[in-house]
Structure formats: C-alpha cells, structure tokens
Amino acid sequence: DQQVKQNSASLSVQEGRISILNCDYTNSMFDYFLWYKKYPAEGPTFLISISSIKDKNEDGRFTVFLNKSAKHLSLHIVPSQPGDSAVYFCAASATTGNNRLAFGKGNQVVVIP
Amino acid sequence: KAGVTQTPRYLIKTRGQQVTLSCSPISGHRSVSWYQQTPGQGLQFLFEYFSETQRNKGNFPGRFSGRQFSNSRSEMNVSTLELGDSALYLCASTFSGANVLTFGAGSRLTVL
Predict the structure, then answer these.
(1) Which A residues, 4 through 23, put their C-beta within 8 Å of a C-beta on chain B?
(2) Of A89, A99, A105, which is closest to B31 when you measure between CB atoms?
(3) Cβ of residue B60 closer than 8 Å to a chain A Cβ
(4) Spatial separation of the C-alpha atoms in residues B66 and B48, rounded to whole Å
(5) Mode of pairing for the β-strands spanning B53-57 and B42-50
(6) Nearest C-alpha of chain B: how many angstroms from A74?
(7) Which pLDDT band, with edges at 50, 70 and 90, does A79 fall under?
C-alpha cells in the first residue's frame, strides 16, 4: 500500500519559471517530510525537509509547504534552472528515530533552457 | 568527507543465484538502511541496521537479508534470485535519530 503518493506525470517548465511538485500521504503518524532529488546513475540527494509543527520551510530557491489537514505537501522551485532537471521524490517518516522513510514514486522534472 | 560507498556498482546474475552487495557508510554514521528502487514501485524500504542489530525491516521475503559489522559497514544478500529482483539497490547512512539519509550511488542488479 503506497502511503506516499506522487502523481506519475512528468513536469516540463521553462527556465526561470516556477516548478511545483505535489505529494499526498495517508499515514497520520507521519510527522517529518523530506524531498530528495535524483540524477541518473546517482543516489538520491537530500533537498529540503519540514517537520509537522511547521507549515512552510524555505531554503534558497526551494520551499516546501505542508497542509496537515489535507495530508498534502508541495515543493516549489523558483526560479527553475536547467540543473534542476531530475527526478524528485517525496518521503515521509514517523519520527521514532528508526530512519524508515516511505517514498513516493517520484516525478520527472525537465527544465527547458 | 567521503560519501556512502556501494560496491559493486553494476552486476548481472542469473535466476537462482545469490548476490551480496556492500555498503560503507559515512564515517561516524552508525545507522545504515537499504532500499530497493524499481520503475514500478519507486523506493521501497528493505531494512535498517544500527550497532550491528537490525532495527527495522520492510515487507520483503526472507530471501533478502543483511548484516552490519562493528565498523558500521553493511552487506545485504539476496538468495535464489528472481527476475523481479532486478533493481537498483540503494544504501543510506545517517546518525541515529536523524531522519535525513545520505544515499550512495547504488548497485544496479540485473537478473537474467
């Protein structure tokens, strides 16, 4: 059962515009959420995270929004750059220190120069 | 600071064989987790080891096993390989209690 869901559609966006990725989760025990980026032939790289006590976290061009009541989070990348072209994974955990992450299936983002 | 190192990077096996994959975590990281990535299922949690003990296990059959050594290095083994085991196997390490995992580049297994 997929507890973290990302729609399978890929996203194409012009350089300089905003990229928005969405993620939904079903497990109400999740209280820590992460986004990872993955290039081909590399492992996922941590991008940004958010705790359930917050509804927004910002790091440079990347902002994650969390709507707990809707069990929904989103990642905004602005402005998008060609180097952002990658697969983005949403992940969630219940903070018990066991490091078990539930991942979504990922979204391909293509930034067009 | 060296990252998470996985070996081998690529390997090809035939059905029925077994395979052992190795992972060296970042120095000082005592928690090592393994994930399987397939096109259809995304990243699926296999197991996590901390201080040589399996702390958590995902929903995989007993053919999938692992261990961790006293230096925190970890291995995972898959016995009686099936075609469906073809995947990218990712190892990740972290400090205990920290949710941000650092991943290695993975070991791509192809089962023929």
Answers:
(1) none
(2) A99
(3) no
(4) 9
(5) antiparallel
(6) 18
(7) very high
Q: How far apart are CA A93 and CA B33, in angstroms?
A: 14
The structure tokens listed for A15 are: 């350089």
CA A50 to chain CA mean position, Å: 10
Cα–Cα distance for residue pair B107/B75, rounded to 1 Å: 12
In chain A, what residues touch B92 (CB-CB under 8 Å)? 43, 99
Min distance A70 CA to chain B CA atoms (Å) = 23
A51 touching B (Cβ < 8 Å): no
Q: How far away is chain B from the Cα of A38, in angstroms, using its nearest Cα?
A: 10
pLDDT tens-digit map of B10-40: 999 999 999 999 999 999 999 999 999 998 7
pLDDT in tens, B39-58: 878 899 999 999 999 988 99
SS3 of residue B75 by DSSP: strand
CB A12 within 8 A of CB A110: yes
Question: How would you classify residue A71: left for phi > 0, otherwise alpha for psi between -120 and 50, otherwise beta?
Answer: left
Which residue, among A5, A38, A99, A101, would best test binding to B if mutated, counting the most B CBs under 10 Å from its CB? A99
Q: Does A50 touch chain B (CB under 8 A)?
A: no
Q: Where are the beta strands (DSSP E) in chain A?
A: 4-5, 11-14, 19-25, 32-38, 45-51, 56-59, 62-67, 72-77, 86-93, 102-103, 107-112
Instruction: Band the pLDDT of B93: cuts 50, 70, 90.
Output: very high
